[in-house]
Design a protein that fits this description.
The complex is a heterodimer. Chain A has five helices and twelve strands. By secondary structure, chain A is of the alpha+beta class. Chain B has five helices and nine strands, in the order ααβααββββββββα. Chain B has a nine-stranded mixed beta barrel with strand order 1-2-3-4-5-6-7-8-9.
Chain lengths: 303, 250
């Protein structure tokens, strides 16, 4: 297990990408008894969820606790990667051909408003800006859940659900007690998360984003008016159907939905390791020297 | 072996302190396991982030009574010289100025809130400052096999009566204790004690052992106060991001 820690101090984008490629190479054909393709998985998982009874915490809530890893997800583009994309087979940070993770709309494309298409769809963001995750910040919601391992805890009292991510030591505290949303003057990277149980599904409402995050390596984006609703449902003891509905009146013409799976990490004695990032950061200066800009004045600003 | 020793120690301490434990048993909120319920948002109300020792006011620094028991830190001679140099160069030499994780115990007394969560096997602390996370395993597992160098170390906890005792090792030599240049090496070994003193206060104690820097162990002591404002939340202060943002706008 501890072999994983060597080199963790430096989170090189190149290394990460290579690791993901290696993961994709060993792709299973099914996940949780459902097809290993996001749209087919989605339909199958919704059916399975109707009959599966999840384990319970001692207070009687569905028990989602444990260590998880994203599956059916890839880091390059939520819209999928066509075989024609020049970055497929590239020597540096090669992309892999992949189906879209978007299940609605059915064409698998983000319903961007016209102005946003040349920014988000392997556009201005990708070509002119440093990926915000590369600056050692949070990967953001929902991208966090497709990076390294994560951990869900349901602490005593059921007032909160805690979701910890190994990737750049990011944490999300999800308030489950019906408290009011933060004032709109407070913007936070991972948003303000408030959750509730709908049957066996953990539903998380997320607001108050600062809009400094992308969905993926290619620069698909939301702005500071995004509202995200995540739905986590166990479909068997080791698989969570993870559905993410995104709306953002500034950037899209309609809400849209992403799906992937979270699969239980079952390695004996597994624990999250400390992944410091800024403390060993070496990539950023060269990217800035090459002319890439920080994403703090994103091209959607002023919309 | 190590676990059975720890267990024996815990039993011995428990047996030694039954009256104290019983006296504290009333009035404290408890988890379903009967442990003190430390969950909630906490913050210090002291000036340890600036200087853990007694210090007069300086421009931008509130005067403060130190948190070091006895106030003196038993530096070895060479280490004392380094501490003084650190103080002189603190504006740029302090790891805080680079936006790095501040280490333990420093993250405990940064002037930002943090939240404690408890499950049967773990106590988790989530910090507003730099998205810090401490996973304190209370499931009886030992420290992993080293050597490891982690900014927040590796924390293993156990309950001694109503006190959460946390053993922390595997640090880096790149973190300090405060903005005044007090420092340690990667041989730092910390034993923290969290003892509830009523529902809204925790007596926090950290014993510091580091033979590379100090002639003998020494201890810090302070109070953690519960934040009680309605809807109080741990927000976000990501120093690295804020430094990058300031640089981008320069």
């Amino acid at each position: 297990m501890l072999i994983r820690s060597s080199g963790l101090v430096i989170a090189l984008a190149v290394t990460m990408s290579a690791a993901l490629t290696a993961q994709n190479a060993a792709k299973p054909t099914t996940v949780g008894g459902c097809p290993a393709e996001p749209a087919a998985f989605h339909a199958c998982a919704l059916e399975k969820a109707k009959t599966f009874t999840p384990p319970r915490t001692r207070s009687g809530k569905p028990d989602l606790q444990g260590y998880w890893r994203g599956r059916l997800a890839q880091a390059f583009s939520v819209e999928g990667v066509s075989g024609n994309e020049p970055l497929v087979g590239s020597r540096v940070m090669p992309w892999e051909k992949a189906p879209p993770m978007i299940v609605d709309p059915p064409d698998g494309k983000i319903p961007y408003q016209q102005w946003a298409i040349p920014i988000g769809r392997i556009g201005v963001n990708h070509k002119q800006y440093v990926d915000p995750r590369t600056t050692c910040g949070s990967g953001g919601v929902p991208r966090l859940a497709l990076q390294d391992a994560d951990q869900i805890l349901q602490p005593d009292g059921d007032q909160f659900v805690v979701w910890l991510f190994e990737d750049h030591h990011v944490q999300r505290v999800i308030a489950m007690d019906g408290r009011p949303q933060l004032g709109t003057g407070i913007k936070v990277t991972n948003g303000d998360s408030r959750g509730r149980w709908e049957g066996n599904t953990l539903v998380i409402d997320v607001n108050n984003f600062n809009g400094y995050n992308w969905f993926d390596d290619s620069g698909n984006f939301y702005t500071d008016t995004a509202h995200i609703v995540e739905r986590l449902t166990m479909i068997d003891p080791d698989t969570i159907h993870y559905e993410v509905r995104v709306e953002d009146p500034k950037a899209y013409t309609r809400p849209w939905t992403l799906v992937w799976a979270l699969v239980r990490e079952k390695e004996q004695g597994f624990e999250l390791l400390e992944e410091a990032c800024r403390e060993g950061q070496r990539d950023l200066d060269s990217l800035l020297k090459a002319g890439f800009k920080y994403y703090f004045d994103p091209p959607w600003r002023g919309r | 072996m190590r676990q059975s020793f720890a267990f024996a120690l815990a039993v011995a301490v428990f047996l030694a302190l039954p009256t104290e434990a019983a006296a504290q048993a009333s009035g404290l909120p408890r988890t379903p396991d009967g442990k003190p319920n430390l969950q909630g948002i906490w913050q210090v109300l002291n000036t340890a982030a600036w200087d853990i020792q007694d210090h007069p006011a300086r421009l931008g620094v509130p005067a403060g009574q130190g948190v070091v028991v006895g106030n003196e830190i038993p530096y070895l001679p060479a280490a004392l010289a380094k501490k003084r140099a650190n103080f002189e160069n603190r504006a740029t030499a302090d790891p805080e100025s680079k936006g790095y994780l501040p280490g333990v115990p420093r993250i405990m007394y940064m002037p930002f809130p943090f939240q404690i969560f408890q499950t049967p096997g773990e106590v988790v602390m989530v910090f507003e400052y730099d998205r810090g996370v401490r996973n304190i395993y209370t499931n009886g597992t030992p420290h992993p096999r080293g050597p490891l160098n982690w900014w927040l170390g590796d924390s293993r906890g156990r309950w001694e009566g109503d006190t959460l005792v946390v053993d922390v090792v595997y640090f880096t030599d790149e973190t300090w204790f405060d903005r005044a240049g007090n420092f340690h090496s990667d041989a730092l070994h910390l034993v923290e004690r969290f003892t509830p003193a009523g529902p809204d206060h925790i007596n926090y104690e950290a014993t510091v052992e580091d033979p590379n820097v100090f002639a003998q162990p020494w201890t810090m002591r302070m109070v953690l106060y519960r934040r009680k404002e309605p809807n109080v939340r741990v927000l976000e202060y990501d120093p690295g991001r804020l430094m990058d943002e300031a640089q981008a706008r320069r």
